[in-house]
Amino acid sequence: MTTNYLINLVGPTAIGKTSLAIKLAQHYHTEIISADSRQFFKEMRIGTAVPSKEELKAAPHHFIQHLSIEDEYSVGDFEKEAITELEEIFSTHKIAIMVGGSGLYTKSILEGLDHFPKVDPKLRKELNFIYKTKGIAPLQQQLKAVDPKYFQIAEIQNPHRIIRALEISLGSEKPYSYYLNQKKPKRNFTPISIGLDAPRETIYERINQRVDLMVEEGLLEEAKKLFPKRKLNALNTVGYKELFAYFEGIHSLETAITEIKKNTRRFAKRQLTWFRKQENIQWFNFQTSSKEIINFIEEQYSTPPKK
Q1: Rounded to a whole number, what is the distance in angstroms from the first to the last CA of the chain?
Q2: Residue 217 sits in a domain of what CATH number?
Q3: Among 73, 100, 122, 163, fewest CB within 10 Å belongs to which?
Q4: Of the ranges 121-130, 209-218, 297-306, which one carries the lowest mean pLDDT score?
Q5: What is the edge-to-edge ordering of all strands in the sheet holding 5-10?
Q6: 50 with 189, same domain?
Q7: Residues 34 and 83 placed together within one structural domain of the fold
Q8: Looking at the 3D structure of the chain, how many domains does it have?
Q9: Residue 202 belongs to what domain range?
């Protein structure tokens, strides 16, 4: 039976995960793995609400601003690197903290990912060309022909998902569905998942306040520096794309800020939808004291995990 525990702290943006993670890390004298994919990039500090210098000093953090927006980095890369980092932490600590709002990234650590073979990148270019010139319909028809099983469950209106499934099916000569639901790796820890939540109105109010604070701290200037590289995938995200539209003259600054707030609220709603579908998350109101949450954690690791 494992004696290592990973406290997995999740919830919507602006709910207070960073503050709680630091309190837990200080209590257990341990380190924090960030699973917030938007905070990986060193050029994107203000718009992704990266922890402050004081917060970063308060407890050791990993995977904060360790990449450039020009780097290619996938959830698979994160899984490999974060598992390696956790093994290092567990060599001297019984408990580690993971915090973030990127559901797929936290899931990759807790459960592992389905892994796919490498295929010729030309395939994706060819499929993208078909999509740009003929639309999504021929891609849907092709997927139905090569992988009818996946076609039945696929988001068939999502071109990225369709193209991904097709490039794997065509490039590996095995259907995309063949690679799904593979046997997951065993982890050397037991997860304790904690979710922070609040009434919707409170979440939305906190988001609006955070966006106003970002603007005060210089979000406009940060986005202006990144504007020449706006086509990079890392920058196709809330808080930047709305300001890029303002720089392009598509709408006013006031409208851009309103759009950031609206799109961040939508993002928070998607986060909650994702996490509420996950099993074994113990939810707490965001105002719950860290002492109460620590009491819950200690009850969990004093109880043998269910077989």
Answers
A1: 11
A2: 3.40.50.300
A3: 122
A4: 297-306
A5: 61-62, 32-34, 95-99, 5-10, 190-197, 281-285
A6: yes
A7: yes
A8: 2
A9: 5-114+184-301
Q: Which of 203, 20, 46, 14 is CA-nearest to residue 98?
A: 20
Tokens of 69: 């927006």
Percentage of residues in the chain having pLDDT higher than 70: 97
- Domain membership of residue 307 (yes or no) is no
Could you tell me if 163 and 207 lie in one domain? no
**pLDDT recorded at residue 37:** 93
CB 212 within 8 A of CB 29: no
Give the CA dihedral 16, 245, 253, 261, nearest 10 degrees.
-30
Q: State whether residue 297 is helix, strand or coil.
A: helix
C-alpha to C-alpha distance for 273 and 257, rounded to whole angstroms: 25
Same domain assignment for residues 102 and 214 = yes
Which position has the token pair 């409170």? 202
- The closest alpha carbon to 32, from 18, 53, 47, 49, belongs to 18
- Do 190 and 291 belong together in one domain? yes
> Distances from the Cα of 279 to the Cαs of 142, 144, 296, 300, in angstroms?
35, 32, 17, 15
Residue 183 confidence (pLDDT): 78
- pLDDT tens per residue across span 197-255: 999 999 999 999 999 999 999 999 999 999 999 999 899 899 999 999 999 999 999 99
43 three-state secondary structure: coil
Instruction: Tell me the torsion sign for CA atoms 251, 48, 270, 186.
Output: positive
Are 133 and 188 members of one domain? no
Whether the per-residue pLDDT at 305 is higher than 50: the answer is: no
State the Cα–Cα distance between residues 24 and 290, nearest whole angstrom: 7
Tell me whether residue 249 is in a domain.
yes
